[in-house]
Amino acid sequence: MKIFRLLTPLLLTIVAVFCFAPAAWAFCGFYVAKADTKLYNKASQVVIARNGDRTVLTMANDYQGEVKDFAIVVPVPTVLQKDQVRVALPNIIERLDAFSAPRLVEYFDPDPCAPLLRFPTAITQTALQNFSAAEVQRSDRSLGVTVEARFNVGEYDIVILSAKESGGLETWLTQNGYKIPQGAKQLLQPYIRSSMKFFVAKVNLDKFEESGYQFLRPLQISYQSPKFMLPIRLGMINATTEQDLIVYILSPQGEAQITNYRTVKIPSNVNIPVFIKDEFGEFYKSLFQTAYTKEGKRVGFLEYAWDMGSCDPCSADPLTQEELKEAGVFWLDDNSLTKQTKVTPILKFPRPVFNSNVFISRLHVRYTRDTFPEDLMFLSTANRELFQGRYVLQYPFEGELKCEAGKKYKQSLPKRFEEEAQTLARLTNGNIQDIRKKMKLSVGNFTSSLWETFLYNIGLD
After folding, report:
1. Which distant-in-sequence residues (6+ apart) come within 8 Å of 166 by Cβ?
2. Within a domain: residue 373?
3. Which among 39, 85, 195, 337 has the fewest CB atoms less than 10 Å away?
4. Which tens digits make up the pLDDT trace of 77-107?
């Protein structure tokens, strides 16, 4: 992680003093790993920047296959013009993913026999805060389809359509060379009844070759509408398995929630066995599947809610002003810099100061046609409470313990290990005996023998 490579030894010492105990601080700790979208075989990603009735929607293209066969149909509330559509940089969604992904952190127990260093509260808080044109319109009356606009953006040919009936729209798309899945008629009908328009894109092969890009870049559209929603039903036409969708919502207000389905927080802020460090990805996939099943499969999970002005611990640096604008944030002005550099005399290195006028919510939805029959409807709230999917490894102190406090600390470890094992089993629906066996191999001879004795005494071994 970039920021840790910049830290001086002095600062590392300060962090170690301030942040050694998970019970003392809600966050902090040393970032170890993250559970980003690379964990999932098919994870669609969408960025929504919204303020008032204006929305900027960025869609990642994870299309696999011949680019000549690519086609995308997105219902939109209004007719879009060329200046409302652009091609975004591919890495902007990767940056949001890295910044907001569930994370693993580690703590190391201090020597319980060593004297504690105490600092005034004001110093402690300060240290934490520091890290803290449409073309000519035409109509095909026989099909009931009207081309409202037609233009080219980057490597994409775009048309905006309106339609009177879904069968005609499906036929028009097929006749005009758009390779759409069979069965689209049924899913198009509700949008037509709602008088929505259709943003349709396919790849201009000549321009794609000229661009030099190997992959299709994200498409970004902006529009005014009181509807704060994301159409997902068209993405289910050919889906034979569950689909993962990650939605990054950027707002000047606070946390975003799904209003027509329940929004719940992913299980978080728990201590888990230290062997998970080598298998965090599999752990998080199991945790998510377990929570998804427990909640009845009709729920959206909040994985991250944070002011973009900070991160703790940082799995990636907060986005700069330029990156936020690339992600669609349109309410930043020249006098509200997202990032600037100040020099702190004591620490002797540049300290980034970030603007806090952007709040990010990361929502993770796993869906099928049966579990999510409706498009997602959202609401931006005034809640700016910080939340993250965060999982803690706490390493025991294994030095010599001769003081009374050390003896009590040593006696407390077996119960802590068993609680970690039980927590892991509960979160992942794992086998408790298998977990205990793995833990014995990872905690060391000194602590393993203590734990075996504890299990024997309570009748679990």
Report:
1. 184, 185, 186, 188, 189, 192
2. yes
3. 195
4. 999 999 999 999 889 999 999 999 999 999 9
Distance, in Å, from the CA atom of 254 to the CA atom of 382, rounded to the nearest integer, reads 5
Both 354 and 227 in a single domain? yes
- pLDDT tens digits, one per residue of 13-56: 223 333 433 333 345 567 888 998 988 877 889 999 999 999 99
- 321 inside domain: yes
Residue 452 counted as domain residue:
yes
Q: What is the pLDDT of residues 164-187, one digit of tens each?
A: 888 888 889 888 888 777 777 788
Task: State phi, psi for 178 to the nearest 5 degrees.
Answer: -90, 120
**Positions of E strands within 238-313:** 243-251, 256-258, 262-265, 270-271, 299-307
Tokens at 386, concatenated? 């910080």
Q: Examine residue 357 and state whether it is found in any structural domain, yes or no.
A: yes
Q: Beta partners for 49?
A: 56, 250
Please say whether the beta carbons of 272 and 389 come within 8 A: no
Please give the tally of structural domains in the chain: 2
- Rounded to two decimals, what is the model's pTM? 0.82
Q: Is the pLDDT of residue 138 over 50?
A: no
For residues 195 and 76, is the Cβ–Cβ distance under 8 A?
no
Identify whether residues 344 and 420 lie together within a single domain: no
* Helix/strand/coil (H/E/C) assignment for every residue in the chain: CHHHHHCCHHHHHHHHHHCCCCCCCCCCCEEEEECCHHHCCCEEEEEEEEECCEEEEEECCCCCCCHHHCEEEEEECCCCCHHHEEECCCHHHHHHHHHHCCEEEEEECCCCCCCCCCCCHHHHHHHHHHCCCCCCCEEECCCCEEEEEEEEECCEEEEEEEECCHHHHHHHHHHCCCCCCCCHHHHHHHHHHCCCEEEEEEECHHHHHHHCCCCCCCEEEEEECCCCEECCHHHHCCCCCCEEEEEEEEECCCCEEECCCEEEECCCCEECCHHHHHHHHHHHHHHHHHHHHHCCCCEEEEEEEEECCCCCCCCCCCCCHHHHHHCCCCCCCCCCCCEEEEEECCCCEEEEEECCCCEEEEEEEEECCCCCCCCEEEEECCCCCCEECEEEEEECCCCCCCCHHHHHHHHHHHHHHHHHHHHHHHHHCCCHHHHHHHHHHHCCHHHHHHHHHHHHHCCCC
Q: How far apart are alpha carbons 453 and 460 in whole angstroms? A: 10
